[in-house]
Amino acid sequence: MTQTSDRPNLILASASPRRRELLAQIGITADHIDPAEIDESPLAGEVPARHAQRLALAKAGAVARRWPGAVVLAADTVVACGRRILPKADDAATARQCLFQLSGRRHRVIGGVCIKAADGQCLQRLVTSVVGFKRLSDPEIEDYLLSEEWRGKAGGYAIQGRAAGYIPWISGSYSNVVGLPLHETRMMLDSLGYR
Fold first, then answer.
1. Among 20, 87, 155, 193, which residue's beta carbon has the most beta carbons within 10 A?
2. Is 90 one of the catalytic residues?
3. What is the dihedral angle through the alpha carbons of 76, 54, 126, 37, rounded to the nearest 10 degrees?
């Protein structure tokens, strides 16, 4: 999108290069990138959907305060096994534990999206995709860990990389699993009159 005088700035409240790439895929370029830098720890007893929704809203709110008059887009992706929220993998031990839990099971990827409009209006959506993982052998897990693709990823894997070879099926939005449900995001921006 090109900047026009009658269109407010679009601020992406995320440091994720995947979210920037996904937006570009549907022809949207954020005017500014401003990560929210909030505490993303789950609250005691918090279920995955509520966690994704709360974090998306908190990220949008934190960044909107810094950019009055702008449209702020924030998102959060949660990988859930049952009621358990799998962490972002920052080390190999965490990634290995996530992969053990995902192996041979279905899990949900819940994307929370929040858009704060220039006029203060706030839109929120939750999108759930279901992903099936094959049963992983120990050598497959160790090979995937060597790839380092898991680093910083919710649930310890990236569906757009080598992990795709371990996923026989997916139900729902693929882009949601990558990091941003594109159809829903486009519809939300359209409903706000953002072009």
1. 155
2. no
3. -20
Token pair of 69 as six digits? 């008059």
Q: What is the distance of C-alpha 78 from the center of its chain?
A: 7
Rounded Cα gap, residues 116 and 146, in angstroms = 39
Give the domains, in start order, of the chain with CATH numbers: 10-191 (3.90.950.10)
> What whole-number distance in Å separates Cα of residue 19 and Cα of residue 23?
6
User: What's the rounded Cα separation, in Å, for the pair 53 and 47?
Assistant: 10
- Between CA 73 and CA 116 the distance in angstroms is 7
Identify whether the C-beta of residue 81 lies closer than 8 Å to the C-beta of residue 102.
Answer: yes
Of all helices (H) and strands (E), which one includes residue 12? strand 10-12
Q: Which of 6, 76, 91, 143 is catalytic?
A: 76
pTM above 0.90, yes or no: yes
Nearest to 75 by CA among 58, 94, 88, 89: 58
Q: What is the pLDDT of residues 104-125, one digit of tens each?
A: 999 999 999 999 999 999 999 9
**CA torsion sign, 161 to 49 to 172 to 96?**
positive
**Can you count the helices (H) and strands (E) in the chain?**
6, 7
